[in-house]
Every structure is written in C-alpha cells, then in structure tokens.
Design brief:
Layout lengths: L1 H6 L15 H44 L1 H9 L1 H20 L5 H21 L8 H5 L6 H27 L2
Helix pairs in contact: 2-4, 2-5, 3-4, 4-5
Length: 171
Amino acid sequence: MKAFAKRFGAVRNERGKKKELSTQDAALAIQISFRAYLIRRSKALRALRELAIAKSKLKEIRAQFNNFSYRRHVARDAEECQRFTEKIIVLLLTVDAIEGADLMVRSAKRSMVDELEAMLDVVDPQPAGKSLSFRRRTFDMPDGVIRKEIEEGVAQVVRMLDEAENSSTSF
C-alpha cells in the first residue's frame, strides 16, 4: 500500500502535511488500477472466447452425431468411424488445453468434456473395464473409489510377484 501511495504522491512530506494528488495524477492512478483489472479479467475472457469457439465445433459434431443416417454410415464404415472419433478426440484435447480458474470456464469445460466422452463411448465403445475416461477422470470420483482402485492395483502387483517367486522356486 505504501508503494502505491508513494508512486502517486499521496504521502506525507517532512512537515507531516499530506500532499494532494493532482487531477492528472489521480486519473493516472485510476487508469493503472483499471488496466490491472482488465488484465486479470482478460485471462478469463480469453478462456471464454476459446470455449465459445470450441462450443461451435461441438455444435457441428453434435449435429453429425444426431444425424441417424450419418451414424449408420459411421457404424458401417471403419474409416469414417476413425475420422469422427479423431474429431471428437481433437476437440477433447482442445477443450482440455483451455486454461481458466474461473468457475464459468471450469463448469463449461466439464460439461463439454462429459458430452464429448459420452459421444465417444457411443461411436467407439471401449471393452468393459478398459474405459479410458474412467481412468482419466479419477479426480472427479470420491476418495473411497480411488483408494479402492489403488488397493486393487497393489494386490495385483503382489499376486504377480508371488507368481514369479513360485515359478522361480519350481525350477
């Protein structure tokens, strides 16, 4: 606060009297404060602008996805299925790369990612238990689920070590 006050001359001089800011200095102080505010807001606005672009791409993909004749074509043609899957994945990566701590940005990203993952599961279903979205999105799950997953992984490693030990002693 003192640095701000010194910068704009609002400090006491040697005799203890407070200097008054000139109208130009006051205007300069207001402009500097406002520009700092704009810079902080511009980060959120940039993220929202990027999200708007991504939403327009999502709208195009959604239109294709909801077109039943196109979806039948995708189901029959492996190349077209691959292209459509790649479109979805590229958009997922684009949305994931958008940075923003603002609540609006985070909630918009979350809803877009959920919709894209649901489309991806329909177009290119993963085998049961091998869902990539389940592994990737563990941060949304309660702690108990994560702990259970870790325990299962540790138990599997222990079984593998036991099997390796038993096979080495049988020779």
